[in-house]
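A.,

Following up on our hallway conversation. Structure tokens first:
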């Protein structure tokens, strides 16, 4: 079926009005959960065959997050979809005002490869909860996971409601030439620009979940052992191919040596080793070569080994990195961690603020003043104090970037909002018709209007 026909089929389905009722939406969300529960093993095997992600990581960083989104939507859908009365102003009495959420229509979700289940399906949950239809274009790079998702969605859902179009650049380009009611994109800043431009031509609203260089800042009073453990996890999980992974560390001079040694201890204790069958591979040769060239240009404190046949790279700590080195230009998106020593926190703030706004930021400290200084003076999408990544796991926290790291948010209610239009309604009755606003006008009428609007 052509892209145009697939969209037409969804348009027809949406216009039938079926997607609007609460019962229909609940039924789809329950079906979504059953689809995942019944096929957990298949999904885990698919993703492992793509880039060796372990079942543990697939459950905790992919499936669990989608389950949480479904459960939250099922629990709150009635509240989210109900009309919200707002204050009605004096000048418009008698009457009432309220806001009514309504679905947008046909939504396109374009997924990234690094979390191929979660980044494709969590937005799809929000699309369906908000009463829309969805065409999903998963990333083509983890091809087994892409095929499995396409097959499962075809088996469980009506294609007019939820369908998958597989493919890479040509297929996405064709999709982007069509008119959708919403495009939700997760991926790189460069492709985000392409999507935004294409959407502008059709006047289609977009959400862009992009990337960037997210810092982890370690203050002099941080608990080093715990900090090292949590940064090791946040950085080397998924072999560093995580949009909110700490991209680089800024550590206070007084802790630099002890922190770097603690990182080595944590890496040694972990499963993140190139000879482990569950250590995640770099997604393709192009990314592998890019990362290896960054290692070769630097001073390796720990790690640095790699296996080209298997596309694995040892967790690697790079010290003596300068802020103007190549590795500090673009998002690393791999298991290489530059550790940069600082003396003055103000210099750090100035440095981070001179760069594009990051998707995440992590600050490790017990000191409320330092914590507040970082949170209040750096603009970033979201973050965690004294840990890494975990803000993504709370459905009550809107997830998304700011500036170059993205436009818009999702997760929980924010996902519902992203795929809804909030219609503003004022309701009047036929009785009582004060003459104030109607012609013929007079200065007396104007004075009354000013008083009723509170402007006199
Ligand atoms: P990508 O931009 O290369 O690809 C994303 C999607 O766009 C894929 O589905 C791909 O098929 C499609 N695509 C690629 N090139 C295209 C083109 N020229 N025209 C049209 N479509 C195109 O991103 P990726 O490599 O899959 O993911 C890595 C990037 O995504 C990183 O920058 C990472 O930070 C970011 N990311 C962000 C989030 C987030 O939630 N903010 C999550 C994961 C990844």
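Then the amino acids I'd put at each of the 456 positions:
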């Amino acid at each position: 079926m052509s892209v145009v026909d697939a969209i037409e089929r969804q348009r027809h389905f949406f216009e039938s009005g079926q997607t609007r009722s609460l019962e229909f939406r609940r039924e789809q969300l329950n079906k979504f959960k059953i689809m995942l529960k019944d096929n957990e093993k298949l999904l885990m095997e698919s993703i492992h065959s793509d880039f060796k992600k372990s079942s543990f990581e697939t459950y905790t960083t992919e499936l669990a997050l989608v389950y949480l989104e479904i459960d939250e939507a099922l629990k709150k859908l009635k509240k989210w979809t109900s009309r919200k009365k707002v204050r009605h102003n004096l000048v418009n009495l008698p009457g009432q005002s309220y806001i009514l959420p309504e679905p947008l229509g046909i939504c396109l979700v374009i997924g990234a490869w690094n979390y191929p289940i979660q980044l494709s399906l969590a937005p799809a949950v929000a699309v369906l909860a908000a009463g829309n239809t969805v065409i999903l274009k998963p990333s083509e790079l983890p091809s087994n996971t892409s095929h499995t998702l396409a097959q499962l969605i075809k088996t469980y859902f009506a294609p007019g409601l939820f369908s998958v179009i597989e493919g890479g650049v040509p297929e996405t380009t064709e999709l982007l030439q069509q008119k959708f009611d919403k495009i939700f994109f997760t991926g790189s800043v460069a492709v985000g620009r392409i999507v935004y431009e294409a959407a502008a031509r059709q006047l289609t609203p977009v959400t862009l979940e992009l990337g960037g260089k997210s810092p982890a800042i370690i203050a002099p009073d941080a608990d080093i052992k715990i900090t090292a453990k949590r940064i090791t996890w946040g950085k080397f999980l998924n072999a560093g191919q995580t949009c909110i992974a700490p991209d680089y560390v800024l550590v206070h001079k007084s802790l630099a040596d002890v922190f770097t040694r603690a990182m080595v201890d944590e890496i040694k204790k972990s499963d993140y080793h190139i000879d482990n069958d569950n250590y995640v591979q770099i997604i393709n040769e192009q990314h592998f070569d890019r990362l290896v060239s960054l290692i070769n240009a630097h001073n390796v404190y720990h790690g640095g080994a790699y296996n080209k046949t298997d596309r694995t790279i040892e967790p690697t700590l790079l010290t003596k990195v300068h802020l103007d080195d190549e590795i500090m230009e673009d998002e690393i998106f791999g298991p290489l961690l530059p550790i940069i020593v600082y003396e003055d926190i103000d210099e750090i703030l100035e440095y981070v603020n001179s760069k594009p706004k990051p998707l995440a930021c992590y600050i490790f400290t017990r000191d409320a003043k330092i914590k507040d200084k970082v949170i209040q003076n750096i603009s970033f999408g979201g973050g965690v104090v004294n840990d890494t990544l975990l803000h993504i796991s709370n459905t009550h926290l809107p997830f998304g970037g700011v500036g170059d790291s993205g436009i818009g948010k999702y997760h929980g209610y924010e996902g519902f909002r992203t795929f809804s239009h909030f219609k503003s309604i004022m309701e009047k009755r036929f009785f009582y018709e004060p003459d104030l606003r109607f012609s013929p006008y007079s200065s007396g009428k104007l004075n009354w209007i000013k008083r009723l609007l509170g402007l006199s």
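The radius of gyration is 25 Å. Curious whether your intuition agrees with the design.

B.
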